[in-house]
Design brief:
Elements: H1 6-23, H2 26-35, E1 37-40, E2 44-49, H3 65-76, E3 85-86, E4 95-101, H4 104-115, E5 120-128, E6 135-139, E7 142-147, E8 153-158, E9 162-164, E10 171-173, E11 184-193, E12 196-203, H5 210-218, H6 242-248, E13 262-271, E14 273-278, H7 283-292
Helix pairs in contact: 2-3
Family: Belongs to the pseudouridine synthase RluA family.
Organism: Peucedramus taeniatus (Olive warbler)
Domain Pseudouridine synthase RsuA/RluA-like: 44-216
Length: 299
């Protein structure tokens, strides 16, 4: 039963997005990834990672990128090809540029480039609200914490090095939290409309969920469709501003179907000569930008 109302149809598509790739045969998934290959040479294969596909397996996950690397290698090369290797990770809901290596040596070399922060990564995200200031650097450590609520779960959160003294409002250094990792994200606003902003982000470090946490808890601008980091203790769909709902032609009760609007737009890899990969926005992201009247700057 296909809904007649275009918004309902759009929502159905969105809800199906993450399920789709979980239900196909691994060979079909490998074929999809092959069609999404942006670049390959003797050392690497660069793909455009689709929405809702995890990199690693886990409970309740039938399909992930790691599992189809042997099949993908054979499809791209020949039956004798060794499995491709992962070099870095992207969240299940994040789309965009992902680098795979053709052999162990290349994989280790590329992992080291990521670890030593020599890979330039640029992301685009739609966020709720308007960051203040409109461009800057978020430099706040991040730590994983257990959330005590009716169902206990884990989240990444901020572990600031400074706090305001309640007596005089002066900035004081605090004791460093154990297990907290340094996290630095550059950001700048590209457009603003409909109570939302389009941001360009450059994570300097690579901590788990870093961009999502820095935007939600550091700037108070959670990513559109980030139902995990829009609250602290409750696991509930994101609450959207009236204007945003109106522009998206969406009711709050259906907000849970909104996908995470975070896209790995560009990656620059210094392998011999610098290799620069750009990945265009997925269709659902482009549609949201149109509905929200967020115009991508031409430069």
């Amino acid at each position: 039963q296909i809904p007649k109302d275009p918004t309902q149809r759009w929502l159905r598509e969105l809800a199906a997005l993450s399920q789709q790739l979980q239900q196909v045969h691994p060979n079909v998934l490998a074929k999809i990834l092959k069609q999404r290959t942006l670049y390959q040479n003797e050392e690497i294969v660069v793909i455009d990672k689709p929405y809702g596909l995890p990199v690693h397996g886990g409970p309740g996950i039938k399909n992930c990128i790691a599992d189809v690397l042997p099949i993908l290698a054979k499809m791209l090369e020949n039956m004798k090809a060794e499995p491709l290797h992962l070099c870095h990770r992207l969240d299940k809901e994040t789309t965009g540029v992902m680098v795979l290596a053709r052999n162990k040596e290349a994989a280790e070399k590329i992992r080291l480039l990521f670890k030593t922060r020599q890979v330039e990564k640029i992301y685009w995200a739609v966020v709720l609200g308007d960051p203040d200031p409109v461009e800057g650097v978020v430099d706040i450590p991040i730590v994983e914490k257990e959330v005590q609520s009716h169902q206990s779960h884990y989240k990444m959160t901020l572990a600031p090095n400074y706090r305001l003294c309640p007596e005089d409002g002066k900035v004081m250094k605090t004791r460093r939290k154990r297990h907290a990792e340094r996290a630095v994200t550059r950001y700048r606003r590209l457009a603003a409309a409909s109570a939302c902003s389009l941001l360009e982000l450059q994570p300097i470090t690579g901590v788990k969920h870093q961009i999502r946490v820095h935007l939600a808890y550091g700037l108070g601008c959670p990513i559109l469709g980030d139902h995990k980091y829009s609250h602290w203790s409750k696991l509930a769909p994101q609450k959207l501003p009236e204007l945003t709902l109106r522009r998206l032609k969406l009711e709050q009760s259906k907000a849970r179907h909104l996908p995470l609007h975070l896209h790995a737009h560009r990656l620059c890899l210094p392998l011999g000569q610098p290799l620069d990969f750009v990945c265009k926005l997925p269709l659902f992201f482009q549609k949201s930008l149109r509905k929200l009247e967020l115009d991508i700057p031409k430069d």
